[in-house]
Amino acid sequence: MRSDVRTTEEVESFLRIRGLTKAFPGVRALDDVDLDLKPGEVHVLIGENGAGKSTLMKLVAGLECPDSGEISKQGRVLRMRNPHDAIRLGIAMIHQELMPFRQMTVAENILIGQEPVQFGVWIDRKGLLQGAARVLGRLKCAISPERLLGELSLAEMQLVEIARALAQDADVIVMDEPTSSLSKTEVAALFEVIRDLQQRGATILYTSHKMEEVFEIGDRVTVLRDGRRVTTLKVDDASEEELIQAMVGRELTLVSSRAKGRGAGPLLTVHNLSRKGGFEKLSFQVNAGEILGFAGLMGAGRTAVVNALFGLEPADRGEIQIGDRRLRIRCPQDAIRHGIGLVSEDRRRLGLVPQMSVRSNLTLANLKAYSRRGFVDVAAESRITAEQVHSLGIKSAGQEQPVAFLSGGNQQKVVLSRMLLICPSVLLLDEPTRGIDVGAKSEIHGLIRKLASDGLGVLLVSSELPELLALSDRLLVMRNGRLVAELDPERTSQEEVMGHAMLR
Amino acid sequence: MQPGQASRLAEWISRYGLLLALVLLAGLLSCLTPNFATAQNLLIVLRQISINGILAVGVTYVLLTGGVDLSLGSVVALTGVVAAGFAHPGEYPVILAVLVGILAGSGCGLVNGLIVTRGKVAPFIVTLGMLTVARGLALVVSGGRPVSNLSSSFTVLGGGAIIGIPIPVLILCVVAFASHVFLKRTRPGRYIYAVGGNEAAAYASGINVTAVKTLAYAVCGGLAGLAGIVLAARITTGQPNAGIAYELDAIAAAVIGGTSLSGGVGGIVGTLLGALLMGVLNNGLDLMNVSSYWQQIVKGLIIVGAVWFDQKGRR
Amino acid sequence: MQPGQASRLAEWISRYGLLLALVLLAGLLSCLTPNFATAQNLLIVLRQISINGILAVGVTYVLLTGGVDLSLGSVVALTGVVAAGFAHPGEYPVILAVLVGILAGSGCGLVNGLIVTRGKVAPFIVTLGMLTVARGLALVVSGGRPVSNLSSSFTVLGGGAIIGIPIPVLILCVVAFASHVFLKRTRPGRYIYAVGGNEAAAYASGINVTAVKTLAYAVCGGLAGLAGIVLAARITTGQPNAGIAYELDAIAAAVIGGTSLSGGVGGIVGTLLGALLMGVLNNGLDLMNVSSYWQQIVKGLIIVGAVWFDQKGRR
Amino acid sequence: SSKEEAKPAEAVIGVSLLNLSSEFIVMISESMEQRAGELGVELIITDAQRNAEKQVQQVESFIAQGVDAIILNPCEVEGSSPAVARAHEAGIPIVNVNSETRIEPSAFVGSHDEESARLAMEFIVQRLGGNGNVVMMHGYMGQAAQIKRAQGAREVLEANPGIRLLSEQTAEWDRAKAMALMENWIQSYGDQINAVFAHNDEMGMGALIALEQAGLKDRIIVASVDAIADALGAVSEGRLDATVFQDSVGQGRTAVETALKLSRGEGCEPEVYIPFQLVTLENIDQFR
Ligand SMILES: Nc1ncnc2c1ncn2[C@@H]1O[C@H](COP(=O)(O)OP(=O)(O)OP(=O)(O)O)[C@@H](O)[C@H]1O
Ligand SMILES: Nc1ncnc2c1ncn2[C@@H]1O[C@H](COP(=O)(O)OP(=O)(O)OP(=O)(O)O)[C@@H](O)[C@H]1O
Ligand SMILES: [Mg+2]
Ligand SMILES: [Mg+2]
């Protein structure tokens, strides 16, 4: 802690936010928000997609400047013009959108801005590696500090970003959906670190769409809706229903019925599929009308499998069949032609065309259907866009808004919707509800279920076990690039799945 | 309001800065010299920008995909020499000379595109290679001497006019209009923006990135061929050393007009405004009889100033 | 194995392709012409690449941040003229002329950097503006005439040698070594990579992106100033029309050497290899008495081929 | 060429030329090659592409290759001088062709560039009867040829106060740029212009075409320098009023001959002056 003598009021609120307002063209992202963070608390921020959580956090971390309002820490009003000021004032942030330096090593990524130096500029390489290893050790993470970041999987990158924030030795840490790509074990390690930070008096502003995390790690919770603060509660006093209702502003019935449709014959059959460095000798099939779940730890190779099936990183050996036709899938074009669609986990890299409008992004994979003689039929495009925006609840300042300015969850909906528009017969979903709010998530679950009951085959990869267990008809577990178990989701438990996924 | 209109309005407003800068500059020039704002002079400005305009429209395709084409100037020389070889009086019909020139240009572009996409060599290097290769070919083909004695039905393409409007200006108008419609309204046009905006995402959406990029380079080369023909017709000779550094002016026009060098952003309207700004500046400074040393200084300052002004407006 | 070594090894292997291409080319030339592989000629090649090498090292800084500097050639002319003005015999100490030249160069670079970072104008436009402005200034300063009658203590910087090694080569070695160490081992150097690799992330990590970029442009300008001095010393005159299109060769050397135009990737070792490849090619083709037209064609093909070969190896 | 290789060449001569994409230099180069073939001399021809530094490099390479003599077609008076100095240091004879350097070569073959501009300008003065307005198109600013031709023209202008220089501007040796410049001049000066002097024929042709298109050619005189094929054609058709002939063939041949003599240690004229000649409709037949 930086100062020893504090008045009671300062102890009450370590970080004090008053009247914070921020508007973007076409939307008031934050509207007169007050918030008090106590020292040593984990304060959870929740709200629907586009409620303003990230905006609030960016303001706290100096990434954006407020239109009005002020932030004070320990009684001192902060004037932050850029993140550098925030870091100097002891505020660190884990960003919702990953911010990797792909060409630099893990160690450099973690200690960027904090490099151990001699003579003021000379980088102490040994110190750098040791420092990075130390932080990674706290997260119980086995990534080598010397690897290039570009070689890591998305989840590993997210861990590195967490490590980067931890390395800054801040007493306020802002965490914007830090666990969106992580599976249970990594989340557990992170939570341990958070508790440790708490012990040392650090304040944490945390957001996530995974409700169970709110209850597990939070002390108090604030609900944002449409840029305004709705309520702040002690977590122990709050119930899930209450929070969800505050978020969406109405009663919400979560889709939970498991209208199981067991498949009518195999749709996609995979035989002895291998890719060097990814997975080995996989054989499985997805039946029409069935949701096949894939569970596994970080780096188990699930993403590699769906990427191979979609032709992004084609398999080296093995067979892929749709119905009884054997296919060669060398590129996504092949896959789409054969009715395979993929929603990638990496929406930033493989999903969005940032400067293009919501409309153009939606129709990108199936533009042929909305054009005549080579000319795009804008009217038809707008119609289908309006439909999708409505059915998925995509929140934007109009169809023409560049998708870069949408909130993270809304971007995810755009990517998902694009693949639905190609009307696939096999849908590969890699973390499809990453960053999507509770209400929308339940609607998307309903949608996936409906698609399956219409006869689609769905291959679902998710790091959220509850989601997998609730949605899948069958569940496969991967470990180190191999299939190790097939389970019946109705007769298994999270513990059993984890047991198979982990090394014994 | 119709769906498309709002966006077009927004686009116009975001373009406003450059348009405003252009209007201010033109206003200033009209005050400073009485010869600027005459119909005749404005037509001359249009004629003077026509070659750079055609090239700039072409390079916009490539820039939108996130690439670059440095070979334009040399391709202009090569196609000019080649087309001129088919344009001596009484040998072949003029249309053949034109076709040969455009084909030679798109051939160069196609080669660029194929090496960029299949060979995965950086566009800068590929087109830099083409810059020297095409120049060398132009010199070899012509033996280092200008190809002159061109038929008047060929040179009319550079010097003639239809109902008072110079033919090069008409060509530019047709090229620019067609390109605008192609880029904004057709499927391949949309794909060009998508590939430039995020190549990996475009690939993952099933777009044939290779074909889209190759197309952009080929079109760009073809338009450079057209520019080469117009230039040869205008100066009534195919010059193997013509067009040096023309690529820089063409890219500058596109970038001044808001097309991003990293791809995915920009368009033909901006490119034309950029070419116009450069043309007005060249013409105006000549009319004002600014000494050639100072012309360079003033030109540099005004271009940077106009783009800065434009940028400021957008934020 | 020591921590850093693995990555350095990997880097060397990824460079292998270009090195191999260079070795192959040199081998071929040695077979084709007996004059190539003599110690004297290899020294000549080194001297010939020294100016392009210094410029290429400088522009590598800027390219690494994701920018570009098109003004190099004009800055070479301007600084050459300015330094020559202070280098007449018996007027000032030679160190002053050198300092003035380097300062003038980094002044140009600083202006570039400030307009890029503060004015948020695209580097292409800013440095294109500087290209014409600096050329204009060079002409104004010199009155359009070469500045000659330079002291021999100045011209020795271009023509002299120490223990048999030409001074320009020594200067290049010092500049390249210092830059390599700076970029790879110091904090500001790593920040240059970080800014080029992901500017938004660098900003969010508290790096002063403005300062880092401005530094890169200023260093690049300063090195252009140094190159201008060496050139003026070598041709014993400050030539206002010197250095035309030098920027293209410098950028080409860096890009051939694997530095990416989109920033964050590359380094000095590659840049030197790139400059060497270009130098060996120029020298070898001259030695083999290839006609100048065909030289251009062959040069273009070999450069693209070498980069393709290098790329292929990396995948 | 295999036949030539059979018997060793009389001598090897390195040639560094200003710019091989300029028609005039191409003509020099071709006449050199032709003469070298006749004399059994081997030429190594390189192109400095208007870059003095490159020229110095090329001469250094020649020295390293041990040529018997060097022919230099300098880019710059001062900038190319180190090349001459290097040759002197190495004891290799060096012949300058077409233009000069500050450091004296072993021999010079060519003419003084100022002279060409003087001829063209005097023609204009004479045709205008000593009274009128002219505009001047410069070559690329700062290059030796531009500086000298401008100087020659100015000398004539100073001697003739009745002639006013309305405007001068560069069109960088380029025909298309010259057309644009002429069009702009027509806009700002219109009828005031009586004559155009361009530093080379390319620009002169550009000005000519622009004037013809504006319908002004019959009232305005155009004169330029170099006598390239196009310009000679235009003179014979009565379109271009004058160009200045520089004997490229004579220069090329004499340069090779002189270099060969020097390489054999024979004496020769230190300066072979090849005069310019004005070409107009009257004497065009001598030049075609
Ligand atoms: N740079 C921007 N330009 C325009 N609008 C923006 C910008 N950034 C955010 N917005 C808008 O502000 C609103 C709030 O966005 P924010 O990112 O804070 O939401 P969020 O609560 O973090 O949502 P999510 O759960 O989806 O991440 C959204 O409507 C979004 O479209
Ligand atoms: N581009 C790449 N280059 C090198 N290795 C990679 C690359 N992408 C992924 N890997 C590695 O391949 C292994 C499998 O990764 P994959 O992303 O398929 O796992 P996953 O089961 O989807 O886990 P996650 O939940 O982390 O996405 C990991 O060890 C990862 O580090
Ligand atoms: Mg968010
Ligand atoms: Mg994954």
Description:
The complex is a heterotetramer, with one copy of chain A (504 residues), two copies of chain B (315 residues) and one copy of chain D (288 residues). By secondary structure, chain A is of the alpha/beta class. Helix content of chain A is 33%, strand content 26%. In chain A, the strands form six sheets. In chain A, strands 6-9-10-3-11-12 form a six-stranded mixed sheet, sandwiched between helices. Chain A has a six-stranded mixed sheet with strand order 18-21-22-15-23-24, with helices on both faces. The longest helix of chain A has 16 residues, at 184-199. The two termini of chain A are 42 Å apart. Residues 1-11 of chain A have low confidence and may be disordered. Chain B has 315 residues and is mainly α. Chain B has a single domain, classed as ABC transporter involved in vitamin B12 uptake, BtuC (Orthogonal Bundle), CATH 1.10.3470. The mean pLDDT of chain B is 92. Chain B is globular. Chain B has a two-stranded antiparallel sheet with strand order 1-2. With 288 residues, chain D is of the alpha/beta class. In chain D, 45% of the residues lie in helices and 21% in strands. Chain D is built from ten helices and twelve strands. In chain D, helix 6 (144-159) links the parallel strand 6 and strand 7 (163-170). The longest helix of chain D has 17 residues, at 23-39. Chains in contact: A-B, A-C, B-C, B-D, C-D. The interface between B and C is large, with 45 and 46 residues. One magnesium ion binds at residues 53-54, 96, 176, 407-408 of chain A.
